[in-house]
Amino acid sequence: MVGDWKLNQATVVAQNEREKQLLSGINLTFRSGAITLLVGHNGSGKSTLLETIAGLRRLHSGSIEQGNESLWTSEGRKPRLNKTIVMNTGIALQQSESQWFASTVREEFDYSLKPYGITSEEREKRIISAMEQAGLPLELLERDPWTLSGGQQRRLAIACLLACEPQWLLLDEPTAGLDADGIRRLCAMLDAHRAAGRGAVVATHDLDALLPLADEVAVIDGGSVREAAPAASWAAAHAHDAAAPQAQRALAQLRAAGFAPPAEPSGAPWPAPRELAALLAAQRAATPVQAAAAQTAAACTAATEPPPISAAPITTTTLAQPNRLASRFDPRALIAAYLLLATTILLQHSWAGLAVAAALSAAALIPLWEQIRPWLKAIRAYIIMIAIIAIIAGLHFNPVSFDWAPAMQNLQRFSGLLLVMMLGMPLMALVTPLRVQRSLEQTFGWLNRFKVPVTQVALTVTLIFRFIPLLADEWERYVKIAHARGKATTASRSLPFRMLLPAMVPYIRSLLRMAEQMADALEARGIGHPAAKPTQGLRLRFSREDMLIVIFAATAAAILIFIR
Amino acid sequence: MFLAKNLVELSNVSVKPLTYGDKMNAQPYLLQHIEVSMAGGEWITFIGRNGSGKSTLARVIAGFGAMHIEGRVERDPVRFVTGQVPIVLQQPDASMIGSTPWEDVVMMLEQHGVEGSKIPELAEDALRLVGMHIRMHQRVETLSGGQKQLTAIAGCLAVQSPMLILDEVTAMLDPEACIHVLEKVRELNKRGVTVIWITQKLEELAASDRVLALEQGEVRFDHKAESFFARDEDGRSICESMGFTAPYVIQTAWELEKLGLPLESLPMTPETLAKAVQQRW
User: Fold this and answer.
1) Is the CB of B98 less than 8 angstroms away from the CB of A434?
2) Where are the domains of chain A?
């Protein structure tokens, strides 16, 4: 028997912007032996919350406990996860259905079960039972997991989880992509899990399928808990929401019209269609004719009252900054300025020259501090690397001595490179893909006459720019999945080496899939159609500000050449 | 004979994936014997399981993709100026290529060869139609899935597409966003935009929608939504025979029917169910 989960003021911040809270002050208790649904808009923080409970995200402040044990222990210098809790908890993320890296389904099970160190008979028994519960035929065990259909892969992800027999199940959108039969099995599985005295936390939009099963509901909005209530009373209170399940709304409408099947205090949030029909029929039989007429009149007035509009507007969550900075400057000015500064910085061969270069770079970078900040870790790593290289360059072993000249020379070289690197860092935030595309076209467009495919190349550049930010996000997803499956107890950013392969294989596959999806979407929107002759709706113009940037860069470059 | 009121007419259309040489004969048909015509301003919902041919049919209508097509596909040459219709797909992250809604629609117009000087105005008008003009210059990372889909829809409107083809655009959205997108598209349809709405969710059907149900590449049903759910004397409906689960209100109406209390017409929404019960009781 395991204890309840208790979250106390749990707060999680974004990795690169520490003042941005993804979860703020969450206080929740998940009862063992109950199923709790997490509901809320996309991007409200449901998935982040699930990942935080599973220890896949670091807590900024607050605490998480299971029973009387804390999820994070801080013996030693680095925080580590509590092994018992990790082994007790099974989490399925949204991408878990594409987590495969082994060559057969059986090997996937073996990998999931490895941390539990069970005998091979026990393992076989568990695999068979998990396959049966998920509704997968045993022949599939020897198949390559990637040859299974989408629905089968989703079932397999659940089966891998079940084989570990976790006390707690944390599921993210488990019904997505499952057909009716798959959903029935999932519900039966959850029901059995609860009956065994175990608990589950499920993030979902699919209230139609899961609300009838739930004990509690917690509404997450903008990273905090807006509401937490028993499922039945929550369902009754929200029956008028435009986005409520159809059954719930139907019931609410019938109640408003005076044909109220009474709200059930416990159990299912709505009766099965058969029961509802029986209730309505019984009511009709019991109502005398005149009374019925009176009731109809009353009901009509009741029904014409508009239901309270409680559906939250879609325009919530992120208070978005308009993209002003990115469309303020002409990319041509930025690139010209960058090239001028970079070249002249690299020409410096004296410490004095470097100092002037550093001062000029600082003048350019200070207003862009916000854009530099995400890179601070990389900068620090680079500085450490420079120091180490300099030391190695200066060391002599026979006899052991230290020669300053080569060390300083190295230091100088790499410091110049560091400045050039740092100047380049904010560039991505100062341009948008379309503006880069256009600056390429406007600068090199004349080459089109010589059959150089400038337009095509420029469009490709735009698409690559759009694609790059997705790469890091996707990698992080698969790192989390591998971390959770391997039952690692390190902080989730540092994946143990042995789990690299289980993250790498599905990551690469997912990139290929993403590229395919994008190509498909582009074609479907008619972009890149050979017959089309692209035009230019956006023309870049050099503004005074752009002029100033180039003049500043040219002056700085002149100074740097002069003092060289 | 092509009728003037029709946008598209398909007669006896069969489709295979495109391959070369002898392999072609061995390919299975993706679609077979399709007879469909669509009038301007219509709303048609395509339903069917995965692999039933819904998306393929949409692509044939739109004039996309490399496919081997037999039979006759005719499009209104006046309204299909470019000969193609853009389709919006289900993955919101893949549906936008610009870094803001404005940039996205501008790129769409540029790539379709619309005259440059007209583009900014056309883009803003289209974004206004779907209610995205207030977020015109917002970065793509800060947009929700529904907002990305509406931006993609604005792109289709901007290039004066003769119809909107929306292939499961609500599949990845949360319930509120689904309703919002569906409402916006219904609004556009009321203004005269022809819509092909492809979905797995039968709850999205409205009264008297035209439903086109596909099964294994063939049209199994092409009529009003009400008759899709209507049960015959044996108590069977097309919906059930195709293996779909009917929405809750339909199931309730069926159960009432079984108890000898049929409603006047099949209700498609909770509101119509309540009203029908009132009238009958």
Assistant:
1) yes
2) 34-53+84-230, 238-304, 328-531+538-563
A276: chain B residues, CB-CB within 8 Å: 252, 255
Provide the pLDDT confidence category of residue A320 given band limits of 50, 70 and 90: very low
According to DSSP, residue A48 is labeled: H
Contacts of B118 in chain A (CB under 8 A): 537
Distance from CA of A184 to the nearest CA of B (A): 12
Identify which of A474, A472, A492, A467 has the alpha carbon closest to the alpha carbon of residue A482: A492
Chains A–B, number of C-beta pairs less than 8 Å apart: 231
CA dist., res. A129 & res. A141, Å (int): 12
Which burial class, exposed, middle or buried, applies to A302 when counting CB atoms under 10 A from its CB (0-12, 13-18, 19+)?
middle
Q: Which helix (H) or strand (E) holds B88?
A: strand B87-88
Q: Which letter, b or e, does each residue of A547-557 get, where b requires 16 or more Cβ atoms within 10 Å of its Cβ?
A: eebbebbeebb
Reading the block at residue A552, the tokens are 């500043």
Helical H segments across B29-143, by residue range: 54-62, 92-95, 101-111, 119-129
Q: Residue A256: enclosing H or E segment and its boundaries?
A: helix A246-256
Contact B278 A320 (CB under 8 A): no
Residues of B in contact with A320 (CB under 8 A): 135, 138-139, 142-143
Task: Tell which CATH classification among 3.40.50.2300, 1.10.1040.50, 3.30.1490.20, 3.40.50.300 matches the domain A34-53+84-230.
Answer: 3.40.50.300
pLDDT tens string B114-143:
888 999 999 999 999 998 999 898 888 888
B256 → closest Cβ in A256, A281, A524: A281
Q: In whole angstroms, how far apart are CA A144 and each of A32, A106, A160, B240? A: 36, 9, 15, 34
ipTM of predicted assembly, 2 dp: 0.83
Q: Write out residues 178-197 of A within 8 Å (CB-CB) of B.
A: 179-180
Interface contact B248-A273, CB threshold 8 A = yes
For B10, the token pair is: 């398909």
Q: How far apart are CA A264 and CA A171, in angstroms?
A: 27
Segment A418-446, tens digit of pLDDT: 999 999 888 888 888 888 888 888 888 88
The DSSP call for residue A71 is S
In this prediction, residue A267 has a pLDDT band, given cuts at 50, 70 and 90, of low
Calpha distance A64→A55 (Å, rounded): 9
Instruction: Kindly report the pTM of this predicted structure.
Output: 0.80
Q: Show me where the domains of chain B are located.
A: 222-280
**What pLDDT does residue A52 have?**
93
Q: Confirm if A43 and A50 have CB atoms less than 8 A apart.
A: no
Residues 6+ apart with CB under 8 A from A440: A454, A457, A458, A461
**Tokens in use for B79?**
């309204």
Q: Percent of chain A, pLDDT > 90?
A: 33
Residues of B in contact with A243 (CB under 8 A): 174-176, 178-179
The CB density around residue A324, as the number of other CB atoms within 10 Å, is 8
pLDDT at position A201 is: 96
CA-only gyration radius of chain A, Å:
30
Contact A524 B273 (CB under 8 A): no
- Mean predicted lDDT score pLDDT of chain A: 84
| Per-residue confidence band for B86, with pLDDT thresholds at 50, 70 and 90 | confident
Q: Are strands A5-13 and B163-167 parallel, antiparallel or unpaired?
A: unpaired
Model confidence band, residue A291 (pLDDT cutoffs 50, 70, 90): very low
Name residues 298-317 of chain A within 8 A of B (Cβ).
299-300, 303, 311-312, 314, 317
Helix then strand then coil, in percent of chain A rounded to 5, is: 60, 10, 30
CA–CA separation, A274 vs A263, rounded Å? 16
Over 70: is that where the pLDDT of A367 sits? yes
